[in-house]
Amino acid sequence: MRALDLAIIGLFLVGMPLLGIWIGGKQKSGSDYFVGEGKISWWVACLSVVSAETSTLTVLSVPTVAYIATPGEGGMTYLALAIGYIAGRIVVSMVLLPRYVAGNLVTAYAFLGKRFGNGLQGTASVTFLLTRTLADGIRLFATAIPIKVVLAAYGLSVSYWTIVVGLGIAMVIYSFFGGVRAVVWVDAIQMLWYILGAVVVIWVIAGRLPDGWFGKAVDANKFQLFDFSSNMLTGQYAFFTAVIGGAVLSMASHGSDQLIVQRLQATNDLRAARKALVASGFVVFLQFALFLFIGVLLWALYNGLNPTKPKPEGLGLANKDELFANFIVNDLPSGLSGFVIAGILAAALSSSLGALASSTVTDVYERVIGRQLPEADRLKHGRIWTIIWAGALILCAGFFASSNKTSADPIVVQALGITGYTYGALLGAFLLGLLFKRARQSDAIVAFVSTVIVMAFLILGVKFNKPDGSLIGIDFGRAAGTKVALAWPWYTLCGVVITLVVGGLLSLRHRSEDPLAEEGVKEAESV
């Protein structure tokens, strides 16, 4: 790492927050701070959605997925998830998105408030706040990895805790002053930056590969796209598991997660929001393919050495997810290294703070005090909660930095696994309100809480035999060897089914339709 690289990185870390503040302008109201008052173009929102949902986890960890994949797993089977993502987004654009955009709702959970009542709106929002804090804590930790590698190259031993605090401060600056407009625009710029960095990396590696590398990669199934051999219950990227699970996961993340919905609400109208959402699915597919290909190239360059084994048997890395960062810092030419590292740091500034703040203020705080705040007060409270949630993300990132050494999964898999506890309940609550007109708020809350409890039991306590998918039994010990949990792409679908079954059965107690459901139908017909 040379002085030129450090200068590029330093300029980026200072310049990007300042750019966000300039783009955001002066915030005049809570709606402007949270939603942007409909001033964001669809293509900008599309790039922002992609940056928000993948960010550093994609840049650093997806290459690791392809690198460590065994011949039986296949190096490109992760792409089956992206196929499901596209299908799920199409459904959301037709079913849920019209209710958010046309209804002029500040958060996705305001729809649940209109359909069921304030109780479920608050319950869903609190669930989002907890889940998003944990997932984005992993994202912030992921961004600290290349910085630690850079500092280690200079002989500086800096803890992950110190690094994530510095990143958290940079992240909060433009979210605090610029609002959602700054977040969306900076997201779009950052995504283009790290995609260009990925292209640069491919160009550099391609000139260093040994003869015959492509044939070896094909023999090792590194270019295998679909996996029809793994068991559907235990194989994370078995074709039907990945496509079906990916579709339902995308319906949940892009239909019931305020992080994504907030960016779509910032578009001009429903048509623009739909274009942004569907187009983002195809962009994600191409982005996944790009970074998986980098993982295959690294595998060929390093001859498939184990990332964490000591040299010369392995690469001698402290963490498997340092694989890509290690190459960037130590093997890229001066200037290019700083450019790519800046692109990875760009992904860190893709902030969920605005979504967390908006949900806290409108879904929780206003429900507690029993009234809607004036716009000026919404803006004030939104900024206060932006700072509070930044502190929470820093704490979570530090926790994952301490615990990640014992995990066998890449960090991108850990982040997706976290959503399994609650995404099914969130999406299920929305579908319950649309499909079961008799369902009341009490039915929905009981179904919601029941789903979270059952999913926690299923994820933590039920183990399967990985080769054949047979049930081993109840075991709350750590999954290891052939004893594994249910493949995580099924988590969201299982949660949706549980919510609909419990809520649907409870709704049979009522002889008439919920009056709030009638209002929702009329509102939908007017879209």
Automatic annotation (TrEMBL):
It is found in: Cell membrane. CDD domains: SLC5sbd_NIS-like_u1 (cd11493). It comes from the Bacteria. GO terms for biological process: sodium ion transport. InterPro entries: Na/Glc_symporter_sf, Na/solute_symporter, Sodium:Solute_Symporter_SSF. The keyword Transmembrane helix applies. Its main location: membrane. Belongs to the sodium:solute symporter (SSF) (TC 2.A.21) family. This is Sodium:solute symporter.
